[in-house]
Amino acid sequence: MKEITDIVKAYQKATKEKKKTALATVVKVEGSSYRRPGARMLITEDGQLTGAISGGCLEGDALRKALSAIVQQENKLITYDTTDEDDAKFGVQLGCNGVVHILFEPIIEEDPLNPIAILTTLQAKREDAVLATLFNLDGKQQLGTSMLFKKDAILSKILKEIEDDIINDAREVFTNKTTTFKVYPCGDQEVGVFLELIHPPISLIVAGAGNDAQPLAEMAYLLGWEVTVIDGRTTHATPQRFANATKVLVSKPENVLAQIQIDEQTAFVLMTHNYNYDLELLKYLLDTNAPYIGTLGPKKKLLRMLDELNLATPANETRVHGPIGLDIGAETAEEIAISILAEIKSVFTGASAMFLKEKKRPIHVYELKNN
Description:
The chain is built from ten helices and 17 strands. By secondary structure, it is an alpha/beta fold. The strands form three sheets. The chain has a six-stranded mixed sheet, sandwiched between helices. A six-stranded parallel sheet has the order 13-12-11-14-15-16, sandwiched between helices. A five-stranded antiparallel sheet has the order 3-2-1-5-4. β14 (266-270), α7 and β15 form a beta-alpha-beta unit. The two termini are 26 Å apart.
């Protein structure tokens, strides 16, 4: 989501400066590549790049393709095939041994459903959504970013003859929480559709506004997470100390839940260094559906808290991450922040947090399902 947020901001800036732009989207990958489907990059006519579609090897050539799309004012699908050992002929030296299909879409400001307008609508509310990007591998008409499916709303400019089928499949993606790739017959051709499930950014609620909370909040902001800092001390919970937090609240534990939203992308970190504050807040959190709760400090502290709350069950001991974080030998506040953020990320993606060199399957968490 951070990449999309950065792209929307960059587009708004380019529009004010009266610069033409194009959006590049990785719509399909066969084999290995640095970025997976859903990676995006905004290109301005003067060569400014926001986002990324590769590790840097594609961006130079992508700039030329984007400028061509801007000049011709039409969508273009470009395929980079690096399975050929002589990949130098592309002039990009990918070295990834994969086939990457990238869609380039010039942004027409007057179009109320241009790709950036759709991405902007995606950000309007914290909820899951499915984004449909249409393309044709045979090089015929490229329809591009065409639909946004939400629980209570649909934005679409898809051809009527395939719209109902795509909406039905988008609904299935929304329900099953699984990104997919489909192919639909459309007249005398086939249209590929990348149906991408997009979650809102992680909402990190940090209970504690001490000095050690500052690097945690700042690093989470750099990841594109929404950060809320809560503390009972007016001297610590201030916007000046947490300049990039979405919210900074001074609150007693019993009033916290009334001031925040908890959804499937919410993580709580208890690090006030005030045992009684953490204890009382934990009592309220265990009655919520918060998917992640972590407590700073040793295991015996967590067990003591659960015991005092008469909630010392195996389920609660498993549910609460205490001590919080991954074992990376962290000592400083900054290192501890990395440990905490890495654990939260692994929990939300369902990743193992193991050494990648020991992983037997592909690095990326999901593999696209085809119909």
